[in-house]
């Protein structure tokens, strides 16, 4: 007699989706459930490393991990396809090349860039979205430097790099650029003073959510290495080679323009008829879709409410990894009609890199770190995420193996 196993489908192999999949193989035996992981690419990429890929300070291959190297295909069926929508009524997922039924579904499809309707931004600015978009930024930026000395008509502003948005990603990017730009100037025999890095932020400060002392340190460190800040400068429009900012409609010209000012949940959520709050799903305490108890929504696709702060948690990698662990356990509980546990986030702190040898942040019980100790801790954090997803072997293949070299 053949026993029909319930089918668990995980959409997306980012931090949340991949961790859910890995944990499901631990809490469930092969006889208990069929596990399917759907992802657009045959690799997972470290989202928190994308700014380094974009700046060209690490190779893009270091930031990506083949799924077949970390997921046992004896336990998990891997499908490489693009998700178009979820049909909740029929309990199926519509892919570009197939349809897939499910009993339990995990939606962890990641983020998309949100330009907040700024005119020309989507058409004219690069965005840090995935490996390919970051490779394009790196190649375009280097091309601007490469052609500068070979084109007598080249203008100095072609060497300017404009970064829109002073949040976590934008500041980490300009930190990497502060290291990369001097290297490019040396490589192409260009006067360093001609190449500018300008960060434009609509609010009066950078890095929302960080302590004022940490913010001050980050800003002064970056300015000392040549980064210019334009704070309180609302971007009105992005043209092919400039930002138009402020009530005076000032034009800031550049050869490379990168938008990091906002993200939203994957557009599949809207296409599937999920009820959205600013592009994301407000999930229940146990991370489920309010109207469907068999669908979990995680990571960048979900609003997870922080009751103490009375606001959603920021969609960080550490939250996504913890959501994956919790969701795997809750799916097993759901299968056996046992009570589910509410998701509880255990904050281990946040560290921002300001280049390979500089950083700032707070860890554990709010202990503040600055400079090289923060840079070391950032590499430890990066290695830890690799360890959680793929063990020591993955650290040896892809990790930042000698964090203390920065000291």
UniProtKB/TrEMBL annotation:
Name of a matching Pfam family: Pyr_redox_2
Domain FAD/NAD(P)-binding: 7-324
GO terms for biological process, alphabetical: aerobic electron transport chain
Keyword Cytoplasm: no
Keywords: FAD, Flavoprotein, Oxidoreductase
InterPro entries (UniProt xref): FAD/NAD-bd_sf (IPR036188), FAD/NAD-binding_dom (IPR023753), NADH-Q_oxidoreductase (IPR051169)
Alphabetized Gene3D superfamilies for the sequence: 3.50.50.100
Keyword Phosphoprotein: no
Domain of life: Bacteria
Cofactor: FAD
Annotated EC: 1.6.5.-
Annotated GO MF terms: NAD(P)H dehydrogenase (quinone) activity
Family in the record: Belongs to the NADH dehydrogenase family.
Name of the protein described by the UniProt record: NAD(P)/FAD-dependent oxidoreductase
Lineage: Bacteria, Bacillati, Bacillota, Bacilli, Bacillales
